[in-house]
């Protein structure tokens, strides 16, 4: 095997090293040892501090692959909390402007902000804090109890001991109070009951509290089971109490039939009843579905249904987003529903009465006996003694409003209902009586005469007089006289104007306009104007 390459100062040193190795192989020279006093195998390179495991298991392992020497700089000490080192009397440059300490600045100062800082007042300079830096090793950085003072746990023990002492004292006072009440009661009853006193003494002994004895039901911790509790941070191990009694038969062992209720081992649930044909009084387990239809599960189901229905009707409610709001609205809904139900019940009872609370009906009414005499004919019809009663409807009858003496619908005319007393066809009208009837008839006669007069006038129409219209839309006055000479000149001007509009080259630069329009010019414009609706407009000019 090759040896490690080592740099020598001269050939002589190299030669001596080779002779020493030959002598060690022959057993004539002592073997080389390491820092721990163990031999170094010459067949292993010297950069490996010890032999591999497959060469010689008795030798040390590879120390170069792990940090086997402890660093002296590492420490397990912790910060001295609240320690102060020096308190100056004057403000120093670079110190905190608020309190005057050199170990921090004004931004990270933990004191209350002063009205005037120590930099300006030069008074009440705070002492400097003790600043420490530690170089922790791998375990020290990850030790959650690093720096914990075990003596502080004595406060926790004292608090619990004080609570137990107060509890024992309270129980003792309650027991003494019970004993005093029982003794005072026994003294009041007398001394004659000797046999009962012994029994009461036994009861008193049973009621005495032994401080060393603790209530098992309060201290029983059941069976602790370490389970993985789901949390938002990824889960943490917590203690969960197992409330199942070990003597109970497991639900999947109640019925071993393969076709019986299905047991889900993952969720440990059996929804159906494993023993449906057994006596209900003897069964202690009827399936998981029984819990869904009873107790608070049923109330929670009703709460969910109410939230869904309220959301469908437009109310801003969500069971998962705001459960407290949904529960409060459901409570208010139940209260309002009960009030409405009781109100409806009271209304019905007030209208129709309550036969259960009324007095008993007399026997003569129950048996149908009375003093009234009724005569019947051979056919069984009533002749005398009992008047025929008209059947009553559920609507109000014979109710007269607005001074009417008849009901609405007692009069009919021209496909309209009305009142017979005043012959009005408006439901909410006020009754006017005979005077209203006469006024209505007079109005009707007047309207008929007006219609007849209008019809006669329309039969012979007056001769229509032809009217002349001027261009601007008004009637031509009777005394309007047009000068033929001025009209001819106006027509010529209108033709020249139209020619200029067609040919832009003949239009002059300096054009003077006259806003005053004479009757002849207006007539010339009307005569020369093109009527777009005229079918012969294309043949003009």
UniProtKB/TrEMBL annotation:
Localization per Swiss-Prot or TrEMBL: Nucleus
Chain spans, region Disordered: 22-42, 179-213
Domain Pre-mRNA-splicing factor SLU7: 136-410
Main localization (coarse): nucleus
GO molecular function: pre-mRNA 3'-splice site binding
Record field: transmembrane: none
Residue ranges the record marks as coiled coil: 484-512
Segments of skewed composition (Acidic residues): 189-205
Pfam family, one: Slu7
Listed Basic and acidic residues bias regions: 179-188
Keyword annotations from UniProtKB, A to Z: Coiled coil, mRNA processing, mRNA splicing, Nucleus, Spliceosome
A biological-process GO annotation: mRNA splicing, via spliceosome
Gene Ontology CC: spliceosomal complex
Superkingdom of the source species: Eukaryota
Function per UniProt: Involved in pre-mRNA splicing.
Subunit and interaction comment: Associated with the spliceosome.
Protein name in the entry: Pre-mRNA-splicing factor SLU7
Organism: Gossypium arboreum (Tree cotton)
């Amino acid at each position: 095997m090759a040896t490690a390459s080592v740099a020598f100062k001269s050939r002589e040193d190299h030669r001596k090293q080779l002779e020493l190795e030959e002598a060690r192989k022959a057993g004539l020279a002592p073997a080389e040892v390491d820092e721990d006093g163990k031999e170094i195998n010459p067949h292993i390179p010297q950069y490996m501090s010890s032999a591999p495991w497959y060469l010689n298991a008795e030798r040390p392992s590879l120390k170069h692959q792990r940090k086997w020497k402890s660093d002296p700089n590492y420490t397990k000490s912790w910060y001295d909390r609240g320690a102060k080192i020096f308190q100056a009397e004057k403000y120093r440059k670079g110190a905190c402007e608020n309190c005057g300490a050199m170990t921090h600045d004004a931004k990270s100062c933990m004191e209350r902000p002063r009205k005037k800082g120590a930099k300006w007042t030069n008074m009440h300079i705070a002492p400097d804090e003790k600043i420490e830096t530690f170089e922790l090793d791998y375990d020290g950085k990850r030790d959650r109890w690093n720096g914990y003072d075990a003596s502080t746990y004595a406060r926790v023990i004292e608090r619990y001991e004080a609570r137990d002492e107060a509890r024992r004292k309270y129980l003792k006072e309650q027991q003494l109070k019970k004993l005093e009440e029982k003794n005072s009661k026994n003294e009041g009853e007398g001394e004659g009951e000797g046999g009962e006193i012994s029994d009461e003494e036994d009861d008193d002994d049973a009621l005495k509290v032994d401080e060393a004895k603790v209530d098992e039901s309060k201290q029983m911790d059941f069976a602790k089971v370490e389970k993985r509790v789901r949390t938002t941070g990824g889960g943490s191990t917590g203690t969960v109490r197992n409330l199942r009694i070990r003597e109970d038969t497991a639900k999947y062992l109640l019925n071993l039939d393969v076709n019986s209720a299905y047991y889900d081992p993952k969720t440990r649930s059996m929804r159906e009843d494993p023993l449906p044909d057994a006596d209900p009084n003897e069964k202690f387990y009827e399936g998981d579905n029984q819990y869904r239809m009873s107790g608070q599960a049923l109330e929670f189901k009703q709460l969910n249904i109410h939230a869904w229905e309220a959301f469908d009707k437009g109310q801003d409610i969500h069971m998962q987003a705001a459960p407290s709001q949904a529960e409060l609205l459901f409570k208010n809904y139940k209260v309002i529903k009960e009030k409405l139900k009781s109100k409806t019940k009271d209304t019905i009872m007030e209208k129709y009465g309550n036969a259960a609370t009324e007095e008993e009906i007399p026997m003569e009414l129950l048996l149908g006996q009375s003093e009234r005499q009724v005569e019947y004919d051979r056919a069984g019809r009533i002749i005398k003694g009992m008047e025929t009663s008209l059947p009553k409807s559920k609507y109000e009858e014979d109710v007269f409003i607005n001074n009417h003496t008849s009901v609405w619908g007692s009069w009919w005319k021209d496909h309209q209902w009305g009142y017979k007393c005043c012959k009005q066809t408006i439901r909410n009208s006020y009754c006017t009586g005979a005077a209203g009837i006469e006024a209505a008839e007079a109005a009707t006669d007047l309207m008929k005469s007006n219609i007849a007069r209008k019809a006669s006038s329309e039969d012979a129409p007056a001769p229509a007089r032809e009217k002349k219209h001027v261009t601007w839309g008004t009637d031509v006055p009777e005394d309007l006289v047009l000068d033929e000479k001025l009209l001819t000149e106006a027509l010529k001007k209108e033709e020249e104007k139209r020619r200029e509009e067609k040919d832009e080259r003949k239009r002059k630069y300096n054009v003077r306009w006259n806003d005053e329009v004479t009757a002849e010019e207006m007539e010339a414009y009307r005569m020369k104007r093109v009527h777009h609706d005229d079918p012969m407009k294309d043949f003009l000019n």
